[in-house]
Amino acid sequence: MKKMVILTGAGISAESGLKTFRDSGGLWENYKIEHVATPEAWLKDKNLVLQFYNERRAQVLAVQPNQAHEALAKLESKYDLHIITQNVDDLHERAGSSKVMHLHGEVLKMRSEKNSQQIVGVPNGVISLGDLAPDGGQYRPDIVWFGEEVPLMESASAIVAQADEVWVIGCSLQVYPAAGLVRHARDHVKVIYIDPNAVKVNGPNITVIKEKAGSVVPAMVEEYLNNG
User: Of the listed 92, 104, 184, 188, which one is catalytic?
Assistant: First the structure.
């Protein structure tokens, strides 16, 4: 079975109504990154960080997967499909995708501040100060903050290196280390880059489509299922 890897970013979730911190009217405009999304912020004001992610979690729970998410899930019927996402929502899973790797963590989960492996779901969608893990550590969002190591990068790179085809959807290809993942694709591998704001990418096998995911992905998937 042909191996296909899909790299997704904020753009695909934005089409479901989730704002991104890079949008001019984005979710993060009332917050400075350094105040809510860094280890230093957590040490300084846990309440503010928890409030911010409780708000993000509520927004994720209020939206639904879009037609691009749903179309990608269909590819599993014909391809060995892996989705590697920079997004912290669960829209790919809700759409039916079974192999999803979250590089930056998952907003619907929490972990002990003492042990990054002690991960559980967030009950009722809210983490409060005083919610403690069995090891006594305060629960924090299971998110990879700015300044923290991305622990799944090595595994993600290995998956991309084995791909027979790679699609990049809704990514700026500007945020590292995730932006460097596409470089691990083998030289002969076809890469399709879908984003209305796609940057120029050099390479003999790269096709750039400056469209929103919902506009092109469903038709592409149907073509691949019928002809691929």
Answer: 104
